[in-house]
Design brief:
With about 400 residues, the protein is mainly beta. The protein has two helices and 28 strands. The longest helix is centred in the C-terminal third of the chain and has 21 residues.
């Protein structure tokens, strides 16, 4: 028994010896002026350390958790007078990391966004805030109806702002005065790619696309992939119109600006089949009471739909010319042609006349032989009567 216990101990030590050693992570914590922060508490991978006079703290033998359910270690750094920092990452090798703590004293930054001049405020546009040192995104705010914005930030944190759709222009912000952001929109061009699909996700070919402003108009039709491209379009606001036979026309205002990736402004649209509505009312001409009837709708001789109308029923159809046949027992059938326009709702009343009843007299045909026999009999009795006289 003792021998087995000894062997198990040696096996345990052998397994530990063969496992790869953990990594070492060295943290340096500084303030916004790059001065080391002593006494900052660091909680990392279920362990704790406190930074020394140089702002450093070391964690040794940190396991690689990237292939586990935890994926990595969580980090939190705290120090009185500063905002806490949190992070999470996997440790696959030795690492030396530096973190900046910013003051927990908050300052308010406010300002106004303008397009091209201070006479043209930019209402309801997104302004993204980034840290100037690390370029990390900090906040996203929306200007009000007058183009104004306001938010709070650490008093010692350097930041810059980027206005949505104009990522190539940075505005460094400060707390000492009202901020004025004038975005240059004139003369900046991009390509506009429009992709059009139907409600089932299939590309629509030969859709006429019109992009126009007060100064210029672009026109084109989609290719087999459902795409059309307008080149060298100046940034700004346009009205886009999409038209295709049998589909509902789309008209929408768009603001053209290149994306951050490829300088191409992408627009995606779905066109729905144009529809019209027919409201069918069937009733008796005699008493105006509703009547149940079968309605057959045809177009160019082909049956489109067949429904049973219980007095009143609505049918949704594509725009076009249709023939409606209404029939039911006890009434004369009715046929009517109707033209439906896009988006139209048309009410149709059908007064059914009762069927006319025809009374026929039925006569029986008596065979000729029976008629002759009967006539002969009558003549015999007449002659017999005369002879007896």
């Amino acid at each position: 028994m003792e021998q087995n216990m000894t062997m198990m101990k040696w096996l345990f030590f052998l397994i530990v010896f063969l496992l790869p050693a953990g990594s070492t992570v060295v943290f340096t914590v500084i303030d916004s002026n790059e001065n080391p922060i002593e006494g900052a508490e660091i909680y990392f991978c279920a362990r704790k350390a406190v930074t020394d006079a140089e702002g450093k703290a070391t964690f040794e033998n940190i396991p690689d958790l990237s292939d586990t359910e935890y994926s990595g270690c969580t980090l939190e750094i705290r120090k009185e007078g500063y905002l806490p920092v949190t992070d999470a990452f996997a440790v696959t090798e030795d690492m030396i990391l530096t973190y900046i703590l910013y003051s927990d004293i908050m300052a308010t930054i406010s300002g106004t966004v303008y397009f091209d001049s201070s006479d043209n405020p930019a209402p309801f546009i997104a302004v993204r805030i980034y840290g100037a040192v690390t370029d990390e995104p900090l906040a996203s705010i929306l200007t009000d109806e007058n183009g104004r914005f306001s938010f709070e930030i650490s008093v010692d944190r350097p930041i810059y702002a980027v206005v949505s759709d104009y990522e190539d222009q940075k505005f460094f912000l400060s707390t000492d005065k009202e901020q004025v952001l004038v975005v240059n929109t004139k003369g900046i061009i991009s390509d506009v790619e429009i992709s059009i699909r139907d409600t089932k996700g299939r590309p629509l070919e030969d859709v006429l696309a019109t992009l126009e402003s007060d100064l210029v108009t672009y026109k084109g039709t989609t290719d087999a992939k459902g795409n059309v491209v307008f080149q060298t379009v100046t940034r700004g606001k346009y009205v886009l119109t999409l038209e295709k036979e049998r589909y509902s026309t789309v008209t929408q205002e768009v603001s053209v600006a290149p994306s951050e990736k490829d300088g191409v402004y992408h627009l995606d649209f779905i066109l729905e089949l144009a529809t019209s509505t027919v409201v069918i009312n069937v009733f008796s001409a005699a008493n105006r009471l509703p009547v149940s009837a079968t309605v057959v709708v045809t177009a160019e001789g082909e049956e489109v739909t067949r429904i049973l109308v219980e007095g009143t029923e609505s049918i949704t159809l594509e725009p076009g010319t249709y023939t409606l046949d209404i029939s039911t027992s006890g009434f004369e059938p009715v046929k009517r042609q109707v033209l439906l326009l896009e988006g139209q709702t048309k009410n149709l009343d059908f007064e059914l006349e009762a069927s006319q009843r025809t009374v026929r007299a039925k006569s029986e045909t008596v065979p000729l032989g029976i008629l002759l026999l009967g006539a002969g009999g009558i003549l015999f009795f007449i002659l017999l009567y005369i002879w007896k006289r």
